[in-house]
Amino acid sequence: MSDSPPVRILKKYYGFPSFRPGQGELIDAVLAGRDALGVLPTGGGKSICYQVPSMLLDGVTLVITPLVSLMADQVRRAIDAGTPAAALHSGMSRREKETVVEQASSGALRLLFVAPERLVGEAFREVLDGVPIRLLTVDEAHCISLWGHDFRPSYRRIGELRARLPGVPVLALTATATPRVRTEIEGELRLRDPERIVLSFDRPNLGWGVQLLRSDGVKLRIHRALVRRRPGARMVYAATRRRVEIIRRYLSATGIRAEAYHAGLPDGERDRVQRWFLEDPAPVVVATNAFGMGIDRPDVRMVVHDQLSGTLEDYYQEAGRAGRDGAPALCLALQAPSDRQVHRAFLDQTHPPLRRPSHWWGVVRGGPERHRWRRRSVGLRQLRAVRRYARRDACRRAMLLGHFGEGEGEGRCPACDRCTGWERLFHFLDSG
Predict the structure, then answer these.
(1) pLDDT value, residue 231
(2) Inter-helix orientation angle 396-403/312-319, to 10°
């Protein structure tokens, strides 16, 4: 494959001499008309797996992605690489949508991005009948699973497209999927004898640590001390907008320039913070989980969580934005007893507990309450996994790998607070 058409496309339009692990196998599979499932780590280059085929297939590659806010960025990157691309989403005018459909139907586009919610309407499915689709790509495919960390009901309808797209291969991509989630992805998307590429979740250049605290009172001082320990790009994640602003103000008041990022800020302010984070040599951004997706800065040296995320999948994805350049980086989290109640409150709001006898009768009979009960059960199990990660006296790296089905192994790892101690994590960081 050293001088195959995909490699030539990669070199000419993307400037890379060769594919990263897993990319070439997935591309070969879909070009041969096979279904494929790729579980590539955060920063593993998932978009290349559909962008390169889109330039070789005679038709449109349809990409289903859950985040409308990222579509413009994905389209821009594709166009910069020489691939005609467009998106369809709710923020566009009717005329803009009609123009995109005309371009796709005429073959003027190679890539078309859509949100999964658009697939539910029969009218849109009829529109797709007039588009020469040659590859169906499902990005963030874990969203299809009840056992995944970001379940989207509309993802469950994607499998219905197979009847309208006979012979069109399906490429499912995700960065975080346990074995159970992978099985559900294959079943719901009706993948046929797929090529399976599941790379290791281990990233040896990342050091992992959790500080267990008696209360929230000392968190702000710890944040200040941590971001001062190392220059370079640093990120601090917090669960709520209010907490983001509290941390940002404290850091700024103590002489550290920090910017806030969350969904409550105006679009122009969020764009300014993104540009600053990408261009400044040593930025500190305090953000909710709205920050990071699609923001491609490889040299983030430290990601600190004000509290662990609600699931290990979310935590691994957010923390994994550190060290994409391969140099040492730290993924640190603070955890106080009250933190568990924050995520429990989120769960109670989205999937309230079943209290009435009629609710439980609905579970038994398979009514709407059954789905609610299942989602709540999944949420509680995910919270227990996070608690084990925080409190269990075992290697952090091994616990993460075990969660994703790689087995926890034996021995000591080179960089986690359980194996080497908290202070030696910073020596590991300095080793780069």
Answers:
(1) 86
(2) 120
The sign of the dihedral angle between the CA atoms of 352, 356, 360, 365 is: negative
Domain ranges of the chain: 5-198, 206-341+376-430
10 Å CB burial of residue 93 (0-12, 13-18, 19+) is exposed
Amino acid at 12: K
Calculate the CA dihedral of residues 336, 337, 343, 345 and round it to 10 degrees.
-140
The whole-angstrom distance between residue 141's C-alpha and the CA centroid of its chain comes to: 10
What is 5-198's CATH number?
3.40.50.300
In this chain, the answer to whether the domains covering 5-198 and 206-341+376-430 adopt an identical fold is yes
Supply φ then ψ for residue 61, to 5 degrees: -95, 115
141 and 147 Cβ atoms separated by less than 8 Å: no
Q: What is the b/e burial string over 234-270, where b = at least 16 CB atoms within 10 angstroms of the residue's CB? A: bbbbbbebebbebbbebbeeeeeebbbbbeebeeeeb
- At 316 the pLDDT is 93
Element (H, E) at 87: strand 85-88
CATH number of 206-341+376-430: 3.40.50.300
Residue range 143-164, pLDDT digits in tens? 898 766 677 788 888 888 888 8
| Mean pLDDT, residues 270-299 taken together | 88
b or e along 196-216 (b: 16 or more beta carbons within 10 Å of the residue's beta carbon)? bbbeebebebbbbbbbebeee
